[in-house]
Amino acid sequence: MDRLIVQGQRKLFGDVVISGAKNAALPILISSLLSSEKLVLTNVPKLFDIKTTEKLLHFLGVEIEKDKNSIELSAKTINHIDAPYDLVKTMRASILVLGPLLSRFSKARVSLPGGCAIGSRPVDIHIRGFEAMGAKINIDKGYINASTEHLPEGKLIGAKINMDQVTVTGTENLMMAATLARGETILENAAKEPEVIDLGNCLIKMGAKILGLGTKKITIIGVESLFGANHKVMFDRIEAGTYLVAAAMTGGEICCHGVESDKIEAILLKLKEAGAEIKIEDKKITIKSDGQLKAVNLTTSPYPGFPTDMQAQFMAMNTVAKGSSKVIEKIFENRFMHVQELIRMGANIDIKKNTAIIRGDDKLSGANVMATDLRASASLVLAALTAKGDTEIERIYHLDRGYEGLEKKFNQIGAKIKRVK
Ligand code: EPZ
Is 202 a catalytic residue? Predict the structure, then answer.
C-alpha cells in the first residue's frame, strides 16, 4: 500500500488549480442512466471514485468514451439492473444508481452500501422516498430489490416526500428518479448543497423540469424521456477549502484558481476569523497568513452551514492555532477518526461524544500515522506540513479517492511530499 512522506515546517507559496467536484461528478455521471442519448461531461476529476463509478456504469451497460478533457456516456440499452456488492462496497455513492434504474427501467437491485469509517450511513430516507412514489422494495441478503412493474406503464408516481433529515445523496437519488415519474414530485427538507444544484442544472439541460434548486423545497414535474446534454462539472469546494486551510496553517500565500467564493462562504468566514487574509477576485481566491492563527469554534451543518467535509481540516488547523476551541460534528456520528492520529503527532484534543475540545499552540511533531477516511487523511497531510520533522502517512488510498494529484499540487506550492510504493 502506498504511503506519503511529508516534510514538516514548509511554507506554501504559489498557484493551485482546483479540480472538478467529486461529489457533483458522481451523481452527474450516474444521471447518464436516465437517457439513451449522449451525455458529454468536462472537468470530471481523475479520482479513484470516478473510476469506480465508470466501472459500475460500464457493468450496467452504459457506453463510455473518454478523451483528454471529456467523458461521453450513453445508456442506449442496459445489460443489468443490478449493482453488485463488490462494486458498491468500495463506494457508497453507488446507491445513486437506484433512482435512475428504477425510473427508467422499472427495476433495480442494488447492494446495501453498508457503513463506513465515519458512521452507519443508512439509506432509509432514500428507500422511504421511492416507496412513497409507488415502488415495491424489499431487502434481502444485503440487496435492495426495487420494482415498479406493478404500476401503470411500470412508472413511478410523483409524490410529496418529506425527508426527515437533510440528505445530499437522498435528495439526488429521489430527484433523478422523479424526472421520469408520472406527475409532480415535491421534495421537502431537500439538500441545498451546490453539488445538488449542479446535478439539477445538468438534468434540466437533459430536458428535466425542476424548480427550487438550492432551496429546501424542490419540485420535479415528470417528463416522458430525457435527452443528451453537455455539462461542465462545478469546482470541488472541499479540495479548495483544504488548500486554503493548508496555506493558513503553514503561513505563506497561495492563490486557488477556478473557484466561486459564494459557494465556500462558511469556510472563508472561519479562515478570516482565524486571522488569515483573503482576497476574492473573479474565479480565484488568494489567502495570505503568517501562520500565527487564532483557534476557531465550529459546528458542522448542512449547506450553507459549515461543511462536515471540512471539519477534520479545521481541527488540524486548531491544533496549531492560539487558544482553545470547540469542534462539534452534527452530521455523522463518528467523524473524529483523525483525532487519535493528530494526538500521536502531539496535538492536545479531548472528545466528549460529538464534541472535540482542542487546546492549540502545541508544535506538532512528525510521526507515523494512518489515514482512515478521505477527509481525515487530508487533515493529517495538513498537520504534517506544519509539524517538526517528517511524517509518514499510511493507507493513503483514502486520499486518492477524493484528491486529484494531491502531492503534485502541494509540491508545486512549496511542500515536500513523497509517495512511497
Ligand atoms: C454526501 O454523503 C457526501 N458524499 C459526503 O461526502 C458528505 O460528507 C455528506 O453528503 C454530507 O454533506 C457524496 O455526495 C458522494 P447524507 P451522503 O445523506 O449523501 C443521515 C466526502 O468526504 N442519513 O447527506 O451519504 C446520515 O447518516 C463524503 O466526500 C440517514 O439517516 O450524506 C448522516 O448522518 C463523505 N438516512 C446525515 O443523514 C438516509 O437515508 C447526512 O448524510 C440518508 C442519510
Answer: no
Alpha-carbon span 285 to 208, nearest angstrom: 34
Atom of ligand 1 nearest to the CA of 331: 34
Catalytic residue (choose from 116, 202, 255, 256): 116
Atom of ligand 1 nearest to the CA of 26: 15
Q: In 147-236, where does DSSP find H-type helix?
A: 168-178, 194-205
CA distance 29 to 9: 40
Q: For the segment 14-67, what is each residue's pLDDT rounded down to a tens digit?
A: 999 999 999 999 999 999 999 999 999 999 999 999 999 999 999 999 999 999
Cell of 280: 476574492
The rounded distance, in Å, linking the Cα atoms of 60 and 58 is: 5
Residue whose CA lies nearest to ligand 1 atom number 27: 121
Q: What contacts 340, CB < 8 A, 6 or more positions away? A: none
Q: Residue 93 corresponds to which cell in the numbers above? A: 455513492
Q: Is 308 in the pocket of ligand 1 (CB under 6 A)?
A: yes
Report d(CA 16, CA 408) in Å as an integer. Answer: 10
Domain annotation for the chain: domains and CATH numbers: 3-19+235-420 (3.65.10.10), 22-232 (3.65.10.10)
Q: Is the CB of 199 under 6 A from ligand 1?
A: no
Quickly count: other Cβ atoms within 10 Å of residue 331's Cβ.
Answer: 21
The counts of H helices and E strands in the chain are 14, 24
Render pLDDT for 361-418 as a digit per residue (tens, 0 to 9).
768 999 999 988 899 999 999 999 999 999 999 999 999 999 999 999 999 999 999 9
Q: Confirm or reject: Cβ of 123 under 6 Å from ligand 1.
A: yes
CA dist 337 and 265 (Å) reads 26
